[in-house]
Specification:
4 strands
């Protein structure tokens, strides 16, 4: 993932949470908002509700890998925040991938 494709600043996160929309799945919650750029930006988050640091890092890796190997490409011009639910720890990569795909289909961007 390129550096320019990663969301970083708190003000950007706050704007997405406030003005964007969200869709929840079994393993992942997706927040999204248009960004008027010619590329998509993403962030992968796991709160302390997911578990200790090892579990949170595994959750982030699962989500990143699910997006990377998926059959779709994230649409340009959107910011996405993928937040892991605590149920993700029992999931395999393929299950997380299906959860993300179904959330993005409900959004209508894939």
């Amino acid at each position: 993932m390129l550096k320019k494709n990663v969301l970083r600043y708190r003000r950007v996160f706050d704007r997405i949470y406030r003005k964007g929309k969200s869709v929840g799945g079994r393993y992942v919650i997706v927040f999204f908002k248009e960004n008027n750029l010619d590329y998509a930006r993403t962030a992968f988050l796991a709160s302390k509700k997911v578990g200790n640091s090892v579990m949170r890092n595994r959750a982030r890796r699962l989500m990143k890998e699910a997006v990377r190997v998926s059959s779709f490409e994230l649409p340009k011009g959107y910011d996405f925040i993928f937040i892991a639910r605590n149920t993700i720890m029992d999931a395999k990569c393929r299950q997380v991938q299906k959860s993300i795909e179904s959330a993005l289909k409900r959004i209508g961007v894939v």
